[in-house]
Amino acid sequence: MLTPPSATRNEPLRPVELRLAMATATLGAGAAIYVLFRSTGLRWGDWGRAMGLAGAIDVARGHARPAAAVVPQWFVYSLPDGLWLLSLLIALDAIWSAGRARWVVRGIVLTAAVAHEVAQASWSGLGTSSGADVACYVAAVVAAAGVSRFGFLKRSRR
Amino acid sequence: MSTSRRIAWSVPVVLVYLALAAGSEPGSQANCRLGAISVKADVSFRDGPDAGYLVTFPITNAGQDGLISLTVHLSTSEGTFTREQQLTLAAGASRDLSYAFHEPTINVTNVEARVSCRP
Fold it and tell me: Cβ-count burial of B21 within 10 angstroms (0-12 exposed, 13-18 middle, 19+ buried)?
């Protein structure tokens, strides 16, 4: 029986591990944007203070202050949502790695994201809806599809 | 992986993202206002009399009911000492707060207090 090439050469990162690492990285990137650039008057700021992290948050925001003056609005207000959607899609794809259930899970996540945006557009109390949010969601879906395909190719080679 | 295990893995993942969504909502709508800060030498009793300093100041919540975070720093020739506290204040409520610092010795100089509050 022929052995797939990847099993005899250097072992590549397994797709599930790779995707979970990417999910963690994109989640962290979105969180970092919040910590560095978003208002500490949001609930996460209360949580950070309650955890005794106010000093560390202040230091980090102090270092980011020069960048805060030049980063575009969409980077601060829309990109974190896109990164978190991407992270969620990658993580759930890694867990629901095959079959029809994966498509059901993807559908639920995307429906929730779209419903959230529609709700924001309809009721002002739920935040602000923007075209940049939608663009970031679309980019996240495209990127998640790319990651999913990459994982599939890795698996099929082994 | 069985469907039940997949569900078991999915639940904490989804909870993390719900927490992120909750964290991006507006937090406490309180609005703290500090009054004049006073620092005076004080003797507290902790295993006997212990010389130190007492920092006092009034605080008012000019916003809605909510959580206020306070940090009090006492800067001295012997180092900087800090107290932190979370207080829930009703809209328009005021309180006189005091924080005892017993760390400085009787030889301390250059004593200065700073107080910050959020939001």
Answer: middle
Residue A156, pLDDT above cutoff 60: no
**B119/A47 touch (CB, cutoff 8 Å), yes or no:** no
Per-residue pLDDT for A7 more than 90?
A: no
DSSP A66-113: HHHTTS-HHHHHTHHHHHHHHHHHHHHHHHS-SSHHHHHHHHHHHHHH
The residue length of chain A stands at: 158
User: A147: distance to nearest CA of chain B, Å?
Assistant: 18
- Domain positions in chain B: 28-118
Q: Which of B2, B3, B6 is most worth mutating to test chain A (most A CB atoms within 10 A of its CB)?
A: B6
Contact B67 A44 (CB under 8 A): no
Instruction: Confirm whether the ipTM is greater than 0.85.
Output: no
CATH tag for B28-118 (out of 3.30.450.20, 3.40.50.300, 2.60.40.10, 2.40.50.100): 2.60.40.10
What's the CA gap between A144 and A111, in Å, rounded? 15
Which whole number is the average pLDDT over B46-67? 88
Is-above-0.90 flag for pTM?
A: no
